[in-house]
Amino acid sequence: MAYAYFYExxxxxxxxxxxxxxxxxxxxxxxxxxxxxxxxxxxxxxxGIPTAAPVFAAGPDDRxxxxxxxxxxxxxxxSFIVSVARANYENEKYWLPQQDMEMSKTPLYTPSSxxxxxxxxxxxxxxxxxxxxxxxPPSGVLYPCxxxxxxxxxxxxxxxxxxxxxxVFRMRFDRLVFLPVRPGGWFSQAVxxxxxxxxxxxWQTGPGTVTWEELFGGDGILKYVCNGVLAVSxxxxxLQSFGEYDSTIFESLKENxxxxxxxxxxxxxxxxxxxxMGEDGSITITTTLPSPEIxxxxxxxxxxxxxxxxx
Length: 311
Description:
By secondary structure, the protein is α+β, with helices and mostly antiparallel strands. The protein contains nine helices and ten strands. Strands 1, 3, 4, 6, 9 and 10 form a six-stranded antiparallel sheet that branches. A two-stranded antiparallel ribbon has the order 2-5. Strands 7-8 form a two-stranded antiparallel ribbon. Helix 6 (153-162) crosses helix 9. It starts with 5 loop residues before the first helix and ends in an 8-residue tail after the last strand.
């Protein structure tokens, strides 16, 4: 993530360390979203293709991994394992029933929404505290760096005063679980690995095909794949900023009922947000999103070698 997000990285690094993951592999959703009840929405998300950017925003018109893989299959020279892979790719049991013929087909993935719900019940918890006085920021760092989508004026004023002031941030997730993302039976790792290793030798051309360079070259489409998903439940966040605030800003924050709390974006209907002003002029914002609601927090992106078993 960008160097300017110094304090955000400290928070996210605490999550990465708890899970035994690398911060640079995190891809953040534009907003922390409720766990979809429908597989169509969840699997469409997992079928997206991450980039090197820290935000993962897979739109309905973006290319999907399953579609790219289908073109890869059509590009392979005929062989027994390719024929089997093509038959599995066309097998309807590995896809959700198509609801709209104008929309892309939705392939099956694991985990499903049901399995995420089951696993999070036995997930671990996470407690974290960040006192900015213990971490002098590098020059040019702004705090707090609210998401660009937040344009609420009271939060802008709060932000401006906070930039040169110490703060304390506390975070708790009652439950969190990280689960690996794997494509269903429509995908053949053997064929994918063979195609990757071939460097394009013998690939077929024509309608519906793609070249090795288009996929894996220097500017290729497939640099990363979705490799895992983090779900959380029971969120407590407390941000105390020791800036010198006046009652006008404090009342504006309360009246507007902001939908963002540093460093996340939360806009759920059952979000509870409380404000308190100390005698020293500090403002404390406490945000809770109680269980049992489950939220998708982020996805892990892995280098394409995760699908090929090659370094």
